[in-house]
Amino acid sequence: MKSRKEVDGIVSWFMKNMPDPGSELQYADPYGLLVAVILSAQCTDKRVNMTTPALLERFPTPQAMAAATAEEVFPYIKSISYPNNKARHLTGMARGLMDKFGGRVPSDPEDLQKLPGVGRKTAHVIASVVFHKEVIAVDTHVFRISRRLGLSKGKTPLAVENDLNRHFPPELRGRAHHWLILHGRYICTARKPKCDACGLSRWCDTFKTRDVS
Ligand code: SF4
After folding, report:
1. Is residue 151 pLDDT above 60, yes or no?
2. Is 212 in the pocket of ligand 1 (CB under 6 A)?
3. Same domain, residue pair 34 and 118
4. What is the Cα 76 distance to its own chain's centre?
């Protein structure tokens, strides 16, 4: 387990260098972020941000999306990865919102996971970013960086989430999610981590052993 001193060093570095991190997905309301997060699976935020304006102009509310077929949604998201599946997820999610929650996006992560196409990671992003719930969403970046730094040896996203919850107090969890995502996106990238430019190297288990994988 990472020592408290090392975790404190990581937190201090992020607090100084990324005091106010946030989502790079553009959205105007909880429904818009939910749509964007569903589209963002295995796709860049940049591509999602290019796609959502026209999609949400055509389907601006859960009611409008729920009334659509996946075939009607598909042309608006065809440049996104897995458009067929995601078109089904979007219409299913919207119908779930209408049927179960009166057309409003719920704030509880467990309720969010009752919606088609919404797994634990997506539910935690929405709960954290929109509703400021003290939960951490573990996506591919968070998973990779946590393991490289030595914050977790977990082999599943849930195991990593549990370790991160032990390291980060509730009030820091929302920020920690963004810290690790942004660090993974720009510095500790999957194929070629920029260790020489990384401010966290002194606390990084991988850097100490030079075993970047
Ligand atoms: S030192 Fe290298 S492996 Fe460790 S967090 Fe930084 S970029 Fe990633």
Report:
1. yes
2. yes
3. yes
4. 22
Q: Between helices 140-149 and 173-186, what is the axis angle to 10°? A: 90
The Cβ of residue 81 has, within 10 Å, a number of other Cβ atoms equal to: 14
pLDDT band at 209 (very low <50, low <70, confident <90, very high): confident
Q: Is 18 exposed, middle or buried (0-12, 13-18, 19+ CB in 10 A)?
A: middle
Q: Which residues contact 212 (CB under 8 A, 6 or more apart)?
A: 148, 193, 195, 206
Number of domains, the chain: 2
Determine which one of 2, 86, 133, 139 is catalytic.
139
CATH number of domain containing 144? 1.10.1670.10
Which of 1-5, 137-141, 195-199 has the least mean pLDDT? 1-5
Active site residue 45: no
**Domain around 145:** 4-21+136-209
Helix (H) or strand (E) segment spanning residue 36: helix 30-39
Q: Is the pLDDT of residue 145 over 60?
A: yes
- Of ligand 1's atoms, which has the minimum distance to the CA of residue 200? 6
Mean pLDDT within 69-91: 97
Q: Is 196 a catalytic residue?
A: no
Indicate whether 185 and 95 sit together in one domain: no
Same domain, 45 and 109: yes
